[in-house]
Specification:
Shape: globular
Distance between the termini: 54 Å
Number of helices: 8
Number of strands: 0
C-alpha cells in the first residue's frame, strides 16, 4: 500500500511540474526564440515524437527526473505522451542506482540509454533543420 501511494504521489508531483513549466514558462521561451526557425523546427520534431523522447531520456542517469519534468513542459511534448513515458520508467530509486551489487551495470545501461537518446534527438533535430532549409 505504501509503495503504491508513493508512486501515485510522485506521478502527480511530476505532472504538476510539467504543467507549471508548460503554462507559466513556455510562452516566455517561445517569445525568446520567436523567428528562430531552427529552434521551432526542433521543438516541433521533439513534440511529435514526445513519447519516445521522454522514455529514452528518462533512462539517462545524466538528466535528473525532477529537472526533466520541467524541461518537457518547456517543449512541445504533449501531456499524455509525457505522462505515459514517465510512468513507464520509474524513479531512480526503483532501479537501485545508489546501492546494490548491480550499480555498475545499471550505470552502464543508463549511459547506453543516454547515447541512444542523444543519437535519436540529434537525428530528429537534423531532420527538422533539413526540412526547413
Amino acid at each position: 500500500m505504501e509503495h503504491s501511494t508513493t508512486f501515485h504521489l510522485l506521478q502527480v508531483a511530476a505532472a504538476v511540474a510539467f504543467l507549471i513549466a508548460r503554462y507559466f514558462a513556455r510562452e516566455r521561451i517561445l517569445k525568446l526564440v520567436e523567428g528562430n526557425k531552427k529552434f521551432l523546427a526542433i521543438d516541433k520534431a521533439i513534440g511529435e515524437n514526445g513519447f519516445k523522447v521522454v522514455t529514452l531520456l528518462r533512462l539517462s542517469p545524466l538528466l535528473p527526473f525532477s529537472v526533466g519534468n520541467y524541461l518537457y513542459g518547456l517543449t512541445s511534448v504533449k501531456f499524455v505522451p509525457y505522462v505515459l513515458g514517465r510512468a513507464l520508467i520509474q524513479e531512480e530509486s526503483e532501479f537501485g542506482l545508489s546501492r546494490g551489487n548491480n550499480q555498475l551495470l545499471t550505470l552502464g545501461l543508463g549511459l547506453l540509454a543516454t547515447s541512444i537518446a542523444a543519437a535519436y534527438v540529434t537525428r530528429l533535430a537534423k531532420d527538422a533543420i533539413k526540412d526547413i532549409e
